[in-house]
Design a protein that fits this description.
The protein contains 11 helices and 8 strands. It has helices spanning about 5-10, 30-35, 45-55, 65-75, 95-105, 130-145, 155-160, 165-180, 190-200, 215-220, 230-250; strands at about 20, 45, 80-85, 110-115, 150-155, 180-185, 205-210, 225-230. The radius of gyration is 18 Å and the shape is globular.
């Protein structure tokens, strides 16, 4: 498949009630390992994990060149579609976002995440009109490239202001109108809130999950279309590695995974 075909496939995999599960990756080898797992249909990077792998903080601690090179490495390592966590677009304005998304598509990305907070998810939000313009810019870049990019627009409003449900939903639906193909809503810790978001968002809803989140099967029952795990998969990997290192240092038993052949 070429990038356009992968983008079409990625968008089609966002099915309410049959969620696309994307186990987040951060480099070529994690991409290959996850892609080879049974049932995996697409991949997604996590900016937090990519940033930490580069020794820099999340929140565009990466340069745009580092972000693009990681996208190129991950997309080039596998045959399935890759969605790239592109943070805030690595640009000061919508025109810059458009230019960078063109480069992201050239790197092989079939989709992207773009977020609407100015700093962290719990911090101040970018002006709504400007956020809409940035989503529209990403869509324009995709249209001009002839690639139907899957744009997963992130709504951070509920993290910092959980009572502003109306404001969050207004942003979500405006992003869809501007060209997003799915809405990634942060701040949905309960079944009731997930159900409410699925009802109020006029398009596929994506969520992030962790060890204490709503169970995956329940998320499917509630109509979620995509589930990711963000930096949680990096934490899972590092915790396992640290435990193994502790065992080996203590002259303990060899972990079975030392025999993993790749």
């Amino acid at each position: 498949m070429n990038t356009a075909d992968k983008a079409t496939l990625l968008t089609s995999l966002h099915i309410p009630g049959e969620p696309l599960i994307v186990t987040n990756v951060w480099d070529a080898v994690t991409a290959r390992i996850v892609a080879e797992a049974r049932g995996v249909k697409a991949l997604a990077t996590a900016s937090h994990a990519v940033s930490f792998a580069h020794g820099v903080p999340d929140g565009e601690g990466l340069t745009v060149e580092q972000a693009l090179e990681t996208a190129r490495l991950v997309a080039g390592a596998v045959e399935i579609p890759v969605s790239v966590d592109f943070e805030k677009g690595y640009a000061a304005d919508a025109a810059g976002v458009q230019q960078n998304v063109v480069r992201l598509i050239e790197a092989g990305a079939a989709g992207l995440n773009i977020e609407d907070s100015l700093e962290s998810a719990s911090g101040p939000l970018r002006d709504a009109d400007e956020s809409v313009a940035r989503v529209a810019a990403a869509r324009k870049a995709a249209d001009e490239a002839g690639v139907p990019l899957a744009i997963n627009a992130r709504v951070d409003a509920l993290v910092g202001a959980p009572r502003d449900w109306a404001g969050a939903m207004e942003r979500a639906n405006r992003y869809l109108d501007a060209g997003a193909t799915s809405i990634f809503v942060l701040g949905l810790p309960t079944e009731g809130l997930v159900e409410r978001a699925v009802k109020d968002v006029n398009g596929p809803v994506a969520v992030i999950s962790g060890a204490t989140s709503v169970p995956l099967r329940k998320l499917a029952d509630l109509g979620v279309a995509r589930v990711s795990f963000g930096p949680g998969t990096l934490g899972l990997t590092l915790a396992h590695l640290q435990r193994a290192a502790t065992t080996l240092t203590a002259l303990g038993e060899y972990p079975e995974e030392l025999g993993f052949a790749y």
